[in-house]
Amino acid sequence: MKITHADVEHVSRLARLALSEQEIDSLTCEMDAILDYVDQLNSLDTEGIVPTAHAVPMENAFRADEVKPGFTPEQALSNAPDAAENAFRVRRVIE
Amino acid sequence: MNEHYETVIGLEVHVQLTTRTKIFCGCSTEFGRTPNSQTCPVCLGLPGALPVLNRKAVEFAIRTGLATNCRIAPRSIFARKNYFYPDLPKGYQISQFELPVCEHGWLDIDLEDGGVKRIGITRAHMEEDAGKLIHGETPETAGSSLVDLNRACTPLLEIVSEPDMRSADQAIAYLKKLHQIVVYLGVCDGNLEEGSFRCDANVSVRPHGQKAFGTRAELKNINSFRFIKQAIEYEVERQIDLIESGGKVIQETRLFDSNTGMTRSMRGKEEAHDYRYFPDPDLVPLVISQEWIAEVRATLPELPEAKRRRFVEGLGLSTYDAEVLAADRKLADYFDACVTLAKDAKSCANWVMGEVLRKLKETDTAITSAPVTPEMLSGLLARIADETISGKIAKTVFEQMWQNGEPADRIIEAQGLKQVTDTGEIEGLVDQVIAAHPEQVSEYLSGKDKLIGFFVGKVMQASQGKANPGMVNQLLKKKLHG
After folding, report:
1. Domain layout of chain A by residue ranges
2. pTM score, two decimals?
């Protein structure tokens, strides 16, 4: 097994996913199978091939440094579950 | 400080680039506006929004890379750094990981013993800033934190040094040097308080002679050079005390508290260090051609170090004077303009560092808005050089130039400050002074040579400072001995 139960638990915690034991078990198998599948690439000689960073063969999409109109604070906050003083409001986070 | 231990410091500096707009969208980067008034779907991280790279930010990164002796990567990519925090709307920060835009640079710092030390720069990568968290202070917001995303997506260049520094002083020397360079380049406003130039310090200690590094602590949240020094020095003591008392340093992030001068552990962030970087599929690779690099290189200004060298070797200034004048690009430009006009570099340096800097400080004025321009100052220096006025009177004239914005010649003319070089007129004054002080004259003649200063002073006073001091001296001696 390339992926262990503990790996899935760890990754789900990082991704803030609350998974049941059952889900973790089945995901462990599925993710392991995916890695096995991708492992087939190891049978090829990839010497000298640049790792793919992007699926589209394209480079340098730029914009000029010009200010474009955006949202008003009201618009920006229109989907916020909670807001105060023109800001998104969340539970207090302080170290 | 325990002499059995050696301090090892590496620095990560976040330089906020002075582009008008954010790194991946057209929102303004202006500081201090109404919260969330500079946002759009991209920097709010709304689904389906597509980030597009600001070309100017890349140009600034190249500039900085070249000025810090880095190799500019012909191809670099952007990656997602995944973590959750309320100031990060997308749940990831767009950064660079495997292929950063700049690598393998260095800066030379001057050591206190007069030596020079080369500090390696591992890499510099582009990334977006997070938003700002304001912790509620009113009764209504006391239990909450408020998120302002105006700063989210502002372009940063994170410059990572090698662990080459061995003391807090070396760290400060490196930071000041880097700070001066990015401000000179015009890629950063350099404002530490507003967070435009932020520093994290990785600090560890090890017994002298040990090859392996000790376990390091990462110090965050430090917004002045003085605090950085304090934080490092405190942390070094803490780690040595810990080891000496049989404890072990643990790798962690520590916050500096400027009120107590201490660092404290920021618990519970260990797991968050698993960032699971991967190439951002929204952004295509960044390819920088040799032509583009050459183009940027051609626009680099003369850097502080080169300027200092030119001031010393080319203009004959002292190291100290060159240091002061080259510290600020605008001040150096002012000085250079004066020298071009007035030629005499030393007197330009004296005046710029003396009167000009004093007035700037007194009136809290920026050098670029000084009422006395280089043209005006050189006009004044010309009158000193041709002996129209003495250096002392020149200071009075300068004061009035500063207040009225009038050229030296007009003030000298209008107030009759022209130096008296007419022998007859000075002779008259000398005679008066000698006649009025017979006691001093006899003392002088009996060998009290120092009294000559007294007579010169009296004559200068009688002429209201306008007599040529050299001539006064000469005539006095002649008359007293005659």
Report:
1. 5-42
2. 0.82
